[in-house]
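Dig into what follows:

_____
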Amino acid sequence: MSDSARQVDRSYGDRPNTDRAPDPERRRRILEAGMGLFSALPYAAVHMDAVAAAAGVAKPTLYRYVPTKEALFIDGLAWTLAELREAIGAIRAVDAPARLRAAVGLVLERVGALSPALTAIEGRGAEFGEHSRRVLREGFDGLRGALADLLRQGVAAGELHVPDIDLAVLMILGGIRMAVHGTGRRPPASAAVADFFLNGLGAQPAPRNGAPR
């Protein structure tokens, strides 16, 4: 697990006292298993028994790391966003447009899969809803830096023209959040979202002499 992921790999709520030091690898397995289930199933269908089984730990062990399902989701959301930031930084596509497409695809896939659970957790009480929104904001702040680095590299290589990198990143992430959360629609294809930001709203040049393009 990346260093930045460890920094945000924190828990919500009080933990039962235990003399045993937390095992980072076991914690990673628990969060990974939980987020895999939250991505694949409705929030209400995810049960701690299934998380323990998927993570390969006993249920009492699971509760030493995450005391409730809500805590598991919020901890896992922070971990997911930190891992996503590292994944964006590790993209090695051939050029900046390809790297941007890959980055948009990663964010859409990972955050889009969690959108139903995000909606569900916000309905479980003001405390959990506010905490999940704060974790999401903090996580997207981290993604902002990773995307800004990607755009700067593209500008330096002459592959992208971005007059205002900070504004461009805000628009990209804002567009992704609107696409996957709260619209009630299926998230769009990542290629369509990336092409929108790469090509803008400009009309395509008319074909010369009326010839088809």
Notes: The chain has nine helices and no strands. The CA atoms of residues 41 and 117 lie 9 Å apart.
